[in-house]
Every structure is written in structure tokens, then in C-alpha cells.
Amino acid sequence: MNDETDKFSLKRDLGFFPALSTVMGLVIGGGVFFKISSVTTATGSSSLTILVWLLAGFITINAGLTVAELASALPVAGGIYKYIEYIYGKVPAFLLAWAQSVIYYPAGISALSIIFATQVMNLLNLPSTWQIPIAITLAIFLYLVNLLGAKVGGSIQSISLIAKLVPIVLIIAVGLFTPSTHAVSLFPINSGTHANFWSSLGGGLLATMFAFDGWMNVGNLAGEMKRPEKDLSRSIIVGLFLITLIYVLISFVFIKFLPFHLIPGNQNAASEAAIRIFGDIGGKIVTIGILISVFGSVNGYTMTGPRVSYVLGTDDEIVFSKFFGKLTKKTRVPANAGLIQTIIAIVMIFMGSFDYLTDMLVFVMWIFSMMMFIGVFILRRNEPELERPYKINFYPIPPLITLAGGGYIIISTLLRQPGLAFMGIGITLLGLPVYYIHYFNKKRSL
Questions:
Q1: Which N-terminal residues, if any, form the signal peptide (predicted)?
Q2: Is the pTM here over 0.90, yes or no?
Q3: Which residue among 145, 174, 231, 338 is buried most deeply as judged by most CB within 10 Å?
């Protein structure tokens, strides 16, 4: 390995079990508790609901394995942004960073802030007029907290990791062995009467994908693993399999304890199921655990999002580069980038619901994910001599599976929710004039 790649080298001290826990920690977030309402809305049946969770897990496992080859092969640091830049050039990479800065991270913050507010209102019996003020307060509060430094934000993440596992384990462990008042039908697999099977399947898959958000970062573990050629695929397969199992089981418990017609569109489904399982007091305690988990998920987006536009600023790749590239003096936090992200998130709180925002961010990011999957084929053809510490087993089957799954999600979204899809595409393409205005201004100043 030459000097150019050495400077990007990471310390390889990660074994299988630390990698496994990292995979699960990256992926499990607030979606596990709240996407059941939108999944059931799309599918219309308990049988198809369980099937889409299984399919989403299968697609995600293959996606993780595909991206893992890119992460282990490319001599660059910076994750998906650098992969896109290495394969396709600066303009597509900028559009990704732009989409992350103006859609992905702000939408994640706003969507989960709306969910947090909804759960607080449910817990304290507050009127619906409190939703927007609570959501905005949370977004601003976590922005201010993260100004105190990455250590403070990281501590919140550690606490919330434990908090989100406790209600998950309790709901599954107790819910599976507690008798229900109604039967759950898992066969035959069919959709509800509201839409045809394939449309329902596509809508359900799109809805589940927010719960798997974080899989794109899984491949980044390659550079820190002792034996990526052996342990990377194992940690991804086992980790995402366990996550899929958790999602299937917790969805089954929700369906088991709530009559199916009460779940679609019900953002309080997790809390209501917990109350039915544990009683009023136990249910409220579990709901508090869920709230802490969502709080941590919002903090994760708040903490990591500004780093994207900050890097664009420091690399002089965006207008007002000095503004975005500025750090606070004491805590070394990209405060300006975080401020813009928070403002966009607040605007989104006013304009969209949880499901609308999460579906849009998933749709947009899957477009770039498809570019990464295709990138594996491009690099195999153009750079066969490139060192690959991890190579996909049974190539080209895993990337083909992800391309088929991702293509189905994108096409289904275009057909089912064209307004959402074109808004996401339109906002992303707005990055083109932003990029070229700055590009020509830089050339003029030289």
C-alpha cells in the first residue's frame, strides 16, 4: 500500500463481536417502534406486513455485503460520499452530499421530532396543538446540546443505545408468551382490499426501509477489522439477520395485541401495545424507554449531519464555504452547518408528517445506493487489480439482488407516490445550480 493510501489507513483492531454490536447499533433506531403504522397502511394485512419485513431484511443484508466490498477496496476515507466521487466524479458526489444536507439529515430530525412530540402528547394527555412546539423545541435543544462538543453528543448516544434495547427486549419477551385476545393470520399471504398485491408490497418495502436506516455505514467497518475477509460478511449477515428477526417479532407482537384495523396510521401503536401487555403503569414505563430511544435517534442525526456540509465547506465545494467550514473555538463543532440543518428541519416539521418525510429520505438515498451497487460492477471491470480485502461471495448474485430490490422500491414509489418522489428528485437536482454557480465563481477568481 502506498503513502497516499496509508494516510487514510485505520487501526485494524475490531473483531467479530465488536463489529456485530456496531452493525446492530448503527441500524436499530426509532423506526423499529413507529414504522409499523405505515407498513400496515401500505400492506393492508398482517401476512404481507410480516413478509415485507423479511424481504427488507434480505435486501438489506445483500446491500450491506455489496457496499462492504467497496469499503474494503477503495483507498479513500469518507464513506458513501467518497465512493460516489471515486467512481462517478465530483458532481454526483456533490449531489449526494447536497441531498444528505437538505433532505436526509433534516428529514430524519424532523420526522423523529414529530414522533417524539406525538409520544409525549400521548403520555401526558396533551392536546394536538402541542405537537409542533414540542417537536421544534426538541430539534433546537439537541442542536444546542451538541454545541457542547462531540463527547456530550456521544454520551447521549450511549445512554439511548441501552434505552432502546430495554423496551425492545421487554415487548418481545413478554409479548410472545402472553396470551392475546385475537388470532393473527399469517397465511395465505395477501394484501388488503385497498390496493393490489404488488403496489402494497412496494409501499410496504419503502416504509420498512427507514427502520433499516444506517446499513450504508456498515461497510465502513472494513478498514477497522482485523480479518475483514472473514469477519466482515459474518458480522453483516448475522447482525442484519438478528435485526430483521427483532423487527419481525416486535411487529408480530404489535399485531398480536392490537386488532389490525387499529394499527394503520396509528403512531401510538407501540405505546398502546405496551399498555395492553404490561398494564397502564408498565406500559407508561416502556413508553418512556421508547421516548429516550427516539431522543437518541434525533441526537444521532443532529450530531452527524453537520459533518457533511462542514466537509463541503472545508473542501471549498459549496457556496459560503467559509461559513459552513467554521468550527466553534472551544468545542470544535460545526455550529453554522448545524444551524442551517436545524432551520431546514424546523421548516420540514411544519410541512410534513413522519411517514412522508421518512419515505422521501429513503427514496432519495436509495437512488444513490443504486449507484453504489452498480459501482461494484464498474470497479470489477475497470480496476480488476484493485486490492479487495473483502470480496462478495457468490458474486454477482448479492449486488443483483440489491439492484432488483432497490429498483422495485424506486419504481413503486414513482408510481404510488409521484408527488413525494418528484419533490425528492427536484430538491436533489437543485444542487446542480448551487454546484455550478460556486464552480464558475471559483474559476473566475483564479
A1: none
A2: no
A3: 338
